[in-house]
Specification:
Elements (H helix, E strand, L loop, with lengths): L11 E3 L2 E3 L4 E8 L1 H4 L4 E2 L2 E2 L1 H10 L4 E6 L7 H14 L4 E5 L2 H4 L6 H17 L3 E6 L3 H5 L3 H25 L2 E4 L21 H17 L18 H25 L2
Parallel strand pairs: 3-6, 3-7, 7-8, 8-9
Antiparallel strand pairs: 1-2, 4-5
Helix pairs in contact: 2-8, 3-5, 5-7
Protein name: SGNH/GDSL hydrolase family protein
Keywords: Hydrolase
GO molecular function, one term: hydrolase activity
Length: 260
C-alpha cells in the first residue's frame, strides 16, 4: 500500500461532495443486510460488497473501514443507531443504502422516510463525506411475487427512488442505478433466498461502485469477479428457508397486502 493517495493535490469534486487528498480513505457503511454482507458468507462472518470494495481500495491506499450496516435495519435505525458512529469515523466515503425493509412494512411512511434519509445524507455530506447511494431495481421480479403484491411493491420502490433522486440532486451523491443494469435480474447474482446478493452479486456491486470511485479520481484495481466461497449446501439452504426466510416473507407480504 502507498501512504499517499495516487491522485493529484487538488480535491476531486462531485456536486457538493469531494474526495480530498488525505492519507487514509475512511469508509463508513450504513444500511441494512445488503451492505452488511448477507448472502456472502465467509469463515469470518458476512463479507459483502463493501468489504470487497474496501479490500480493493487497500491495494493502493490505507483504508479505515467502518461497517455499521445491520440486517433488518430501516432508515430510522440508520438515523438513530448508525449515523453518529459513522460521523465519528470521519469518513471520506460513506455508503447509504437502505429502504427495502421500509417499503416492505405496513408502517411505510414516505414523508418520514424522506426526512430521515435526507438528514442522514445531509449530515454525512456536511462532514465532508462523498456519499454513495442507489436507485433500486424492481425487487418483485427477483422475488417472483404474485400480481397481488407486485403492484404495491413497485409503487413504493418508485417513491423510494424519487427520494434517492432528491438526495443525489441536493448532495451530489454518487448514485449506482441498479435498475439500469439488465444483469441485475440474473439468477446467479442472487442468493438462494432471492433476498440478498450472492457472492457474485456482491462482487459485481463492489466492482460497479469501484468504477464510480475511479471516475472520481480515487484510483485502485477494480474488485475481482472471481468467487472464492462454496455455495451453501442443500441442508443449509433448507434450514435457512424454514428458520429465517419463510417467516420473514410471511411478515413482509402480510404488511404489503395490508398497505395496498
Amino acid at each position: 500500500m502507498t501512504s499517499q493517495p495516487s491522485w493529484g493535490p487538488q480535491p476531486v469534486h462531485h456536486g457538493d461532495a469531494q474526495i480530498p487528498p488525505v492519507e487514509y480513505i475512511r469508509f463508513a457503511v450504513l444500511g441494512d443486510s445488503a451492505s452488511c454482507g448477507v448472502g456472502d458468507p465467509t469463515p469470518q462472518g458476512w463479507r459483502g460488497w463493501a468489504r470487497i470494495l474496501a479490500d480493493a481500495v487497500a491495494a493502493e491506499h490505507h483504508v479505515s473501514f467502518c461497517k455499521l450496516a445491520v440486517p433488518g435495519a430501516v432508515v430510522a435505525d440508520v438515523r438513530r443507531e448508525q449515523l453518529a458512529d459513522a460521523l465519528a469515523h470521519r469518513p471520506v466515503v460513506a455508503s447509504l443504502v437502505v429502504g427495502l425493509n421500509d417499503v416492505m412494512r405496513s408502517t411505510w411512511d414516505p414523508g418520514q422516510f424522506r426526512a430521515d434519509l435526507l438528514h442522514c445524507a445531509g449530515e454525512l455530506a456536511r462532514h465532508g463525506a462523498l456519499v454513495i447511494t442507489v436507485r433500486f431495481h424492481d425487487h418483485s421480479r427477483v422475488f417472483g411475487l404474485p400480481r397481488l403484491l407486485t403492484r404495491p411493491l413497485r409503487r413504493r420502490i418508485e417513491v423510494l427512488n424519487e427520494i434517492y433522486d432528491e438526495v443525489h440532486a441536493q448532495y451530489g451523491a454518487l448514485r449506482l442505478d441498479l435498475g439500469a443494469d439488465p444483469a441485475i435480474y440474473s439468477r446467479e447474482l442472487w442468493a438462494f433466498d432471492r433476498l440478498h446478493p450472492s457472492e457474485l452479486g456482491h462482487r459485481r456491486l463492489a466492482r460497479r461502485v469501484g468504477e464510480l470511485l475511479n471516475g472520481e479520481g480515487l484510483l485502485f484495481p477494480l474488485p475481482s469477479l472471481t468467487c472464492t466461497s462454496p455455495r451453501p449446501s442443500r441442508r443449509e439452504q433448507a434450514r435457512a428457508l424454514v428458520v429465517d426466510i419463510a417467516p420473514w416473507l410471511y411478515r413482509r407480504f402480510r404488511d404489503l397486502t395490508h398497505g395496498r
